Amino acid sequence: MADEKKCHNESCGSDVHNEHLCFLMYDGFHLKEKEGYKQMVQDAQYRCENCGRTAKSDKNLCGPVAL
Of 6 and 58, which is predicted with more confidence? Predict the structure, then answer.
């Protein structure tokens, strides 16, 4: 089965969307910057309502909700 590349949330209106996990994952951040990715997701406190990803900071998600 081929890996599917998920789209990032193109409708996100944030000026810092390029810091959101959906954008970073789409760009391969988790493969290129493994330690940086680990720091963003370890001890996650928020989940994105759009993509379901989790992050330590709400600033790294398009639609954060506290866990």
Answer: 58
